[in-house]
Write a structure and sequence with these properties.
The chain is of the alpha/beta class. It contains 19 helices and 18 strands. It has four domains: 3-128, Response regulator (Rossmann fold), CATH 3.40.50.2300; 147-310, Rossmann fold (3-Layer(aba) Sandwich), CATH 3.40.50.300; 314-390, Orthogonal Bundle (Helicase, Ruva Protein, domain 3), CATH 1.10.8.60; 408-451, Arc Repressor Mutant, subunit A (Orthogonal Bundle). A five-stranded parallel beta sheet has the order 2-1-3-4-5, sandwiched between helices. The structure holds adenosine-5'-triphosphate and magnesium ion (MG). Magnesium ion (MG) binds at residues 176-177, 241.
Amino acid sequence: MKTVLIVDDEKNYPRILAEVIGEEGFSALTASSGLDAVETLKAKSVDLVLTDVMMPGMDGIELLEQIKKESPDMPVIVMTAHGSVEKAVEAMQKGAYTYILKPFDNDTLIAHIGKAISIHNIVKENSILREAITSRYTFGNIVGKSPSMHDLYSVIKKAAPTNATILIEGESGTGKELVAKSIHYNSLRKNAPLISVNCTAFAETLLESELFGHEKGAFTGATSLKKGRFELAHHGTLFLDEIGEIPMNIQVKLLRVLQEKSIERVGGTTSVNVDFRLIAATNRNLEQEVKKGKFREDLYYRLNVLKAVMPPLRDRQEDIPVLINHFIEKFAEERHGNEKLQGVAPEAARLLFDYPWPGNVRELENVIERSVILSSGPRIMPSDLPPKIRDGIGSQLDLNGIPENAGLYETLAAIEKRMIQRAMAMSDNVQTKAAELLGIGKSGLNQKLKKYGIP
Ligand SMILES: Nc1ncnc2c1ncn2[C@@H]1O[C@H](COP(=O)(O)OP(=O)(O)OP(=O)(O)O)[C@@H](O)[C@H]1O
Ligand SMILES: [Mg+2]
């Protein structure tokens, strides 16, 4: 059970808070002063500190400083009264996880505590796992410990030794190609080649001769016989990437190859037997493409013998820390200087955790590579992260410039405008994406864009 230390000099308030927190499955300790808190922290294992600012003797800010000296990773939430916004700002600058304005409702407090603790776990795991990413978290080179990744590992394990065709669906950057490789190298075909074709890389006629090859003289420019990728994949695995983009007439030919296990080269008359295992990947939902009439139903059924669906990274946040570790290891050598990178600072971990990762694991990999190179200290700091993550939708909004005496509606409107601007920037001005980030509908977003004159 996670333990929250409540620090407040008032008599009854801490006790009430402790009850509320206790009901949510945390255990709560109380301290009546900063010094008392310091003693408790020495004696007990605490996962989060919730402290008042105004206290006689050591105040909340001093306590915060003290805690950050002793255990920099400890999440601290600071409670401040309305009218002491400077204190809140100071607390944030000194490394508080967040501040909460009194009076607050209990749900808000519990949500903050829950989130802070899970981020703290990331940071802890980060250091615990640094030495060895155990096999529980990996399958070959695939890293991830979420239930959905475990499901994926069992599909791969079952599928690999068979000859069954596999369809891998998933957003860009989720690891489709990595899975294809993993299946091939865990199969009986692992000593034969794995041949990849990106179906979008060729114009229609070229794609045909890439896949099936051509005879000498089949068309102008065909000066010699060329084996197609199916033939090259003989005894091995053929990986057809972006299969959703294949034009209809090639879909027909593909279907025939899958049924007959033989190909005819372009311009040829005889058929050549080929022994291949097909893995296909797409970032489209092929079933929907079939419904729209853009993908042949019969081919879809041929491909979809086994299906692996790659979950987007935003749906499996628990994989973020293990992936970060994996990529830190991977890029460690690119780092200048000799100081070993020890991990990610809590503030940076929080930003990485909150970011929606539209580019999935590939984007995370790029971000970590960049940060490993840019960071100069022992840990990756927020300043080492790209601006779009540093100023993430989930990070603290910059409230500067909102007049102190602004009323509720004016303040809320200013915050709303900033969140919308930020979401638009983060989604490259794609409204559907921005609406998704904000958790509102597209028409709602549209109205607000007009209201605030955001282009
Ligand atoms: N679970 C994972 N563990 C470790 N590395 C991963 C994982 N998923 C993806 N990667 C890495 O992220 C990058 C992108 O993965 P990959 O190329 O397999 O994605 P993809 O789904 O094929 O993307 P696209 O649709 O854009 O082609 C690669 O460098 C890959 O090694
Ligand atoms: Mg790919």
